[in-house]
Design goal:
It is built from eight helices and 16 strands. It has helices at about 10-25, 45-55, 70-75, 125-130, 155-165, 190-200, 210-220, 235-240, and strands spanning about 30-35, 60-65, 80-85, 95, 100, 110, 115-120, 135-140, 140-145, 150, 170-175, 180, 185, 190, 225-230, 250. A hairpin with a 5-residue loop joins strand 9 (about 140-145) and strand 10 (about 150). The protein is globular and about 65 Å long. Bound molecules: adenosine-5'-diphosphate and magnesium ion.
Length: about 250
């Protein structure tokens, strides 16, 4: 934990009072968090993140990300119990080979290797773990018809998991303050329509594309709050979940 002894008792009380309604609201609700890739380069940030997860274990967590065993270890160190699994376990993620059609010649397809798309998610094993108070940490790997393995984009997996688990919240941690407009300003709130425009004019590109489409799908499927926030800020997630302050970009379905 970071040192909180320097905070005046009055301020501490204020912080706790502010957090209480959120603690009550989220009690027993499911949260899906995508953590990995660019947001988790620094081990100190990873440790902070794991502390937040354990501290907030009043809700049911599902974590999806690429660097599973690190997170499992950090959560154990912070006093929680995590179980690392891939989408192969418990028959969770059925996948198929991703088809990449050539942008210039649609009759041509590029071979993208063992990269896949989700066919279906069966969240049974995740539910069973949550029921016994374990924190599932899912690596985004699915299985095909011939039992072959596919790597799937972790944002897509987190979004789809949030959908099928009917999660209260989906948080995608990344390495930018959120979604930025053409001049680099943070867009705090995005609707489906605005997202279409940002896609069309090329404001959203690269790794932000699957993040935003997944986030929008989850919002449309009824996930209450979908946030893209900056994982490089220590305890970003704790602040996002337990304070009035909104960080990053919130995605709304309409
Ligand atoms: P992660 O590992 O968190 O998934 P990615 O590199 O896949 O990270 O996706 C985040 C990246 O998307 C940002 O670092 C940025 O380079 C890129 N990006 C593209 N368009 C935008 C945008 N409009 N706003 C913010 N980031 C964007
Ligand atoms: Mg990415």
């Amino acid at each position: 934990m970071n040192d909180v002894t320097h905070i005046a008792p009055r301020d501490k009380a204020e912080i706790l009072a502010q957090a209480l309604p959120y603690i009550r609201r989220f009690h027993g609700k499911t949260m899906v968090i995508k953590y990995g890739g660019n947001a988790m380069t620094d081990p100190e940030l990873q440790a902070d993140f794991a502390e937040d997860v354990v501290l907030l274990k009043l809700v049911e967590w599902v974590l999806a990300g690429e660097v599973q065993q690190d997170i499992v270890g950090f959560i154990h160190k912070a006093g929680g119990q995590a179980v690392g699994l891939t989408g192969r376990d418990g028959g969770m993620i059925r996948a198929k080979k991703l088809k990449m059609v050539d942008a210039k010649d649609p009759s041509k397809e590029h071979d993208v290797g063992q990269v896949g798309d989700i066919v279906e998610i069966n969240p049974g094993v995740v539910r069973a773990l949550l029921e016994d108070n374990f924190i599932p940490v899912v690596s985004p790997i699915g299985f095909g018809d011939e039992n072959e393995s596919y790597n799937i984009n972790a944002d897509v997996v987190a979004s789809k998991l949030a959908e099928v688990l009917r999660a209260e919240k989906l948080v995608l941690l990344t390495n930018t303050p959120g979604v930025l407009d053409k001049s680099g300003q943070l867009l705090t709130d995005l609707t489906a329509r605005q997202i279409d425009d940002l896609f069309a004019d090329g404001t959203i590109s690269g790794g932000m594309l699957p993040k935003i489409s997944g986030a929008l799908d989850a919002a449309k499927a009824g996930v209450n709050a979908v946030h893209i926030i900056d994982g490089r800020v220590p305890h970003a997630m704790l602040l996002e979940i337990l304070t009035d302050q909104a960080y990053g970009t919130m995605i709304r379905s309409h």
